[in-house]
């Protein structure tokens, strides 16, 4: 699969200076962790789940989580497990391309049980998502994952969700993060990414952000994101990919503040109607939050509505200017450091301090592509979001 692979070749050729690469479940973990993009969650109980997965794949989704945890009631867990077994059998019989599929479980015991029940169709599974991850709770999940992997002969990844009150509370946060760091380091080769459960963070204080505010406007949440990236997202080889928080809204009935999208880029791109649609569906707040995710060291995003997926992917494309800067910084002859003016003549590129940024940018360029010099985020949005 590839990002924007659902677009016609001539559209991709018009948009991309360098097209996104092809990847699959067997690709290197570093590449996959960057390629997750907008990970779409779906309740595992959906009766036509196989059809839903195929439909979303055709619309550009490359990773999905099939949820047996918070999205379904306690009384529906057994039915959800049975439904997954049926739906995987259905998918295995179809000669179609599928996204990376993960199952969000409630207990460690579900992992080997589900792999056993899935049988040969477990080959469609990329891994599991672990809820409310701490060192104490998380180790059994990781041990169960390793056991299921050995039993099935199938490479399986884990994605811990960081969402417990211990991370919110100031007096316990550092100890909690240090414990999580010990757990994931022990199983580093099996941990694909760390996911942030911001809704659970907010619930610890009875908070819910409004559609015209981002997670970064809720200071107590922003402080947790900062500390998670500080301790678990470092660029020195010890860090992990940390994904952005879920955006809860897909329509706004009333606004208190002005929309967060300027008119001028949409006027230039002759996409005024697109701007109005984005605002109507609360996408201006989502776009703002995605930009802040990137600025704060996060890549990818949890999504609960298909309409959010194109926005996440469009804003993950590397601009021609970013690519030019990164390529300059990483030239072999720049190994000794120094400062140079960017090819766009609008900034300073300092080789040593900007090297880690350049390396991350090149990885993002590989999986999401590089836009042509004259292609803006508006052009990418217009192509990615259905009319």
Describe the protein's architecture and organization:
By secondary structure, the chain is of the alpha/beta class. The chain folds into 2 domains: 9-317, Phosphoenolpyruvate-binding domains (TIM Barrel, Alpha-Beta Barrel); 321-368, no CATH class. Helix content is 46%, strand content 12%. The chain has 17 helices and 12 strands. The chain has helices at 9-15, 29-35, 49-58, 77-92, 110-118, 135-152, 165-168, 170-186, 198-203, 219-232, 264-268, 272-280, 283-295, 309-314, 320-329, 351-368, 377-384; strands at residues 16-18, 38-43, 63-67, 100-104, 125-130, 157-162, 194-196, 242-243, 301-303, 339-341, 348-350, 370-371. The strands form 3 sheets. An 8-stranded parallel β-sheet has the order 8-7-6-5-4-3-2-9. The chain has a two-stranded antiparallel sheet with strand order 1-12. Strands 10-11 form a two-stranded antiparallel ribbon. It is globular. The model has no long low-confidence stretch (mean pLDDT 92).
Short description:
This protein has 387 residues and is of the alpha/beta class. The protein has two domains: 309 residues, TIM Barrel, CATH 3.20.20.60; 48 residues, no CATH class.
């Amino acid at each position: 699969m590839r990002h924007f692979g659902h677009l016609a070749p001539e559209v991709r050729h018009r948009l991309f200076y360098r097209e996104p690469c092809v990847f699959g479940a067997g690709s290197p973990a570093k590449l996959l962790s960057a390629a997750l993009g907008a990970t779409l969650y779906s309740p595992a109980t959906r009766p036509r789940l196989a059809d839903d997965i195929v439909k979303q794949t055709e619309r550009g989704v490359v990773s999905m989580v099939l949820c047996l945890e918070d999205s379904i009631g306690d009384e529906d867990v057994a039915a959800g497990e049975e439904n997954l077994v049926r739906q995987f059998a259905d998918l295995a019989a179809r000669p179609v391309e599928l996204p990376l599929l993960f199952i969000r479980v409630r207990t460690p015991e579900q992992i080997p049980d589900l792999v056993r029940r899935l049988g040969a169709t477990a080959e469609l599974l990329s891994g599991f998502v672990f809820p409310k991850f701490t060192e104490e709770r998380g180790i059994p999940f990781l041990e169960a994952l390793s056991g299921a992997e050995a039993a099935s002969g199938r490479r399986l990844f884990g994605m811990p969700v960081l969402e417990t009150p211990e991370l919110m509370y100031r007096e316990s946060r550092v100890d909690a993060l240090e414990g999580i760091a010990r757990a994931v380091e022990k199983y580093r080769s099996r941990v694909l990414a760390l996911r942030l459960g911001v809704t659970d963070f907010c619930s610890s204080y009875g908070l819910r952000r409004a559609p015209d505010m981002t997670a970064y406007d809720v200071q107590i949440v922003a402080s947790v994101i900062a500390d998670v990236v500080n301790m678990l997202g470092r660029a020195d080889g010890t860090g992990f990919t940390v994904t952005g928080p879920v955006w809860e809204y897909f329509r706004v009935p009333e606004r208190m503040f002005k929309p967060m999208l300027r008119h001028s880029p949409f006027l230039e791109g002759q996409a005024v109607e697109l701007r109005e649609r984005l605002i109507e569906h609360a996408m201006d707040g989502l776009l703002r939050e995605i930009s802040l995710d990137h600025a704060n060291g996060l890549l990818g995003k949890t999504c609960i509505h298909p309409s959010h997926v194109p926005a996440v992917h469009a804003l993950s494309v590397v601009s021609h200017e970013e690519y030019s800067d990164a390529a300059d910084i990483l030239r072999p002859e720049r190994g000794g450091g120094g400062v140079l003016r960017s090819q766009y003549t609008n900034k300073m590129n300092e080789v040593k301090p900007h090297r880690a940024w350049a390396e991350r940018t090149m990885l993002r360029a590989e999986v999401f592509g590089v836009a042509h010099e004259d292609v803006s985020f508006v052009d990418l949005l217009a192509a990615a979001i259905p009319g």
